[in-house]
Amino acid sequence: MSRAKEAFGVYVHWPFCLSKCPYCDFNSHVRHAAIDEARFAAAFAREIATTAERAPGREVTSIFLGGGTPSLMQPATVGAVLDAIGKHWTVAKDVEVTLEANPTSVEATRFAGYRTAGVNRVSLGVQALDDASLKALGRLHSAREALDAVAIARRSFDRYSFDLIYARPDQTPAMWADELRHAIDEAAEHLSLYQLTIEEGTPFFGLHQAGKLKTPDEAVARALYDVTQETCDRLGLPAYEISNHARRGAECRHNLVYWRGEEYAGIGPGAHGRLDIDGIRHATATEKRPEAWLMRVEASGHGVVTDELLNSEERADEFLLMGLRLAEGIDPDRYTALSGRPLDPRRIALLREEGAITVDPTGRLRVTSSGFPVLDAVVADLAA
Predict the structure, then answer these.
(1) What gap in Å lies between CA 315 and CA 73, rounded to an integer?
(2) 335-374 pLDDT per residue, tens
(3) Containing H/E element for 13?
């Protein structure tokens, strides 16, 4: 397959937020002084140019502006970043350009500007559809404001998605089923649904340790997961990845780049990338601190602080770990090609007996609905 026919994504990280959510362990930062957007836009363009020198001749099939809160950027800044990508790589005619946005009225007023700049898909961080939960999650918008922003997104873009968090404190399966039905009425084609996880280093972690934040126990969490799958399946948004649901053909193409083990460039503070250079897969990561990243880029053209060469076994393990998150599963022949050894047929047979995986007539290996809740164990077993 020629290089132009392969998917190639560009991820751009905008690291700033208005406030830090208590559950969030992403690379996001609050700054009370105004951000020098022109300086950051110039640095993004510089890092894009340097990355394109290392990985030339690619055709960009998807661009994802993530964060942080990219909808805090002016549309002109987004336009400058997209122009830089188009200057240094070929961009596919049907490129998917996603921007993550907070569902507030202030940011929704910029949607027309983002559309003009070249964004054709937005992903809204709604997180919950009731005000008490939003307040508990540290969100700055109300449920009404979120739904108004979704309506503006619907008018501004052909494609949009939003996120919800479930397994929240005191949430019951019946409450979640109602909220989910409401969400699917609003969602059109795509929803990202994440179980609340308590991450070390976040305010929620300290509260949880102190017994002041109680999340659903394992049995309730599993019931909430089952409600998610059943409701989304029944209403036409089946899972195509463990946390992502879409109508057929409406999957997020950029995220499929990650899960299918394809190439992507990571641009901006704390961004990760996977680049094939001279036939070797490089795992890159940039400086996380925004101002330190900025100075590195201005001094040397990039902010990369980690550039690891992945050996065949590491590549194969990553392919397995990411690919088995997908409903489409993996082609075991690709695992063999990457690792130089096939998956152990005895382990496959055992996992099939246990009902954790299936193998279709073409040999494609998929995790079952009962295997997904224990996905980490399935992957560890196959990779051993």
Answers:
(1) 35
(2) 999 999 999 999 999 999 999 999 999 999 999 988 988 9
(3) strand 8-14
Domains of the chain: 8-257 (3.20.20.70), 330-383 (no CATH)
37-44: long-range pairs with CB below 8 Å, 24+ = 37/73, 37/74, 37/77, 38/77, 39/294, 40/77, 40/290, 40/294, 41/77, 41/80, 41/81, 43/293, 43/294, 43/297, 43/298, 43/303, 44/12, 44/80, 44/81, 44/84, 44/267, 44/268
DSSP state of 326: B
Q: How far apart are the first and last CA of the chain?
A: 30
Question: Which sign does the torsion angle of CA 32, 33, 38, 39 carry?
Answer: negative
Of the candidates 135, 247, 102, 134, the residue with the CA atom closest to the CA atom of residue 184 = 247
Give 350-361 pLDDT, tens digit per residue: 999 999 999 999
21-54 burial, b at 16+ Cβ within 10 Å, e below that, comes to bebbeebbbeeeeebebeebbbbbbbbbebbbee
Q: Could you give phi then psi for residue 78, rounded to 5 degrees?
A: -60, -45
Whole-angstrom distance, CA of residue 268 vs CA of residue 247: 31
Counting residues of the chain whose pLDDT is more than 90, the rounded percentage is 77
In contact, 232 and 238? CB cutoff 8 Å: yes
The structure's pTM equals 0.93
Closest-CA residue to 267 (of 104, 34, 75, 68): 68
Band (pLDDT 50/70/90 cuts) for residue 1 is very low
Quick one: pLDDT at residue 213? 66
Q: Which residues contact 227 (CB under 8 A, 6 or more apart)?
A: 173, 176, 177, 180
Q: Quick one: CA torsion of 270, 26, 102, 21, rounded to 10 degrees?
A: -140
Per residue in 48-61, pLDDT tens? 999 999 999 999 99
